[in-house]
Amino acid sequence: MLMRYFLCLLYCASLYGEQRLALGLSANGVSSAAAYPGAPLILTARLFSASGEPILLEASEGTWTAALSLRISAPDGSSLDWYFKTDPSPEAKVTLDDKQSVQLYWLLSPEDAAAVGPGSFEITLVADATELASAGAWNGRESSNTVQVSFKPEPDDWTAEQLNQHWLSLSLYHQLNGDNAASLEAVENLLAKQPESVPAWTRKGEVQAASDLADDAVASFQKALDIFYKSDPKPTHPPSEILGKLNELELRLLTAPVP
User: Fold this and answer.
1) pLDDT at 15
2) Domains of the chain: which residue ranges?
3) First CA to last CA across the chain, in angstroms?
4) Residue 210: count of CB within 10 angstroms of its CB
5) Which of the listed residues 40, 130, 140, 258 has the most CB atoms within 10 Å of its CB?
């Protein structure tokens, strides 16, 4: 669903030749997330030029991310403010175009997520640079898609989708906090429950690659591909993301200097 949102923005901008900042938002990797005890909440935002034309993001003072704010709505319509840690620290300015986009994270720890209590919430990302943009920089106002987040008690019987979302979000949370060992442990917990999970093997490869374990990462990505093609020998849509990660790693190994 999130990909459809991106494609719609791109199509509309190209149709009218409009220079427009586009924002996409997901919660734990999806547009409607369920968070269970022990899991974090990770909001992932992608900012890009919908038309491909260059867009400069720069503030007259401070950093351009001061233009970004999260709007969190409770079921009764009231506004909330949760303590998110942001990652990574942004550059002072950035130019978006047909090749360059920006991805940012907002992290709510498992402890802070548990403190929210049960309930469903809506979250939207707003970019408003009308009063802080530097001369020549983007000075408009745009909003992302709205994501749904539900904090729920731990289910009695976990579905495969729930297990994936729970453990993969925990793995990413630890990695973004610089703890690759804990990130890999979360993936291993998922694989112990779902040894044929393509997302789990892919995530394992990502963590291994980030830990400079290139050979192990190649093996994990290859395992993900083997499982994928075993279940769907002639897919309509090939696993391009996994193939891209695998090709990048294999190229790195081929071009690595010989000790």
Assistant:
1) 42
2) 2-151, 160-255
3) 46
4) 14
5) 40
Question: Tell me: the pLDDT tens digits for 197-241?
Answer: 999 999 999 999 999 999 999 999 999 999 999 999 999 999 999
pLDDT of residue 109: 94
Instruction: Name residues whose C-beta falls within 8 Å of residue 120's C-beta, 6 or more positions apart in sequence.
Output: 75, 148, 149, 150, 151
What's the predicted TM-score (pTM) here? 0.86
- CATH superfamily ID and name for 2-151: Immunoglobulins (2.60.40.10)
DSSP 31-81: SEEEE-TT--EEEEEEEEESSSS-EEEEBSSS-GGGGEEEEEE-TTS-EE-
Residues 187 and 171: beta-carbon distance below 8 Å: yes
Report helix, strand or coil for 250.
helix
CB atoms within 10 A of CB 44: 17
What integer pLDDT is reported at residue 252 of this predicted model?
A: 82
Q: What residues form DSSP beta bridges with 46?
A: 24, 103
pLDDT recorded at residue 77: 84
Residue indicated by tokens 């403190």: 115
Judge whether 2-151 and 160-255 match in fold. Answer: no
141-151 and 79-80: which strand pairing?
unpaired
Both structure tokens of 57: 């993001």
Distance set, CA 37 to CA 115, 150, 161 (Å): 10, 12, 16
> Which of 253, 165, 238 is closest to 208 using CA atoms?
253
Q: Which CATH class is domain 160-255?
A: mainly alpha
Q: How confident is the model at residue 171, as a pLDDT?
A: 97
> Which residues of the chain have a pLDDT value below 50?
1-2, 5-6, 9-17
What pLDDT score does 13 carry? 44
Cβ proximity of 73 and 121 under 8 Å: yes
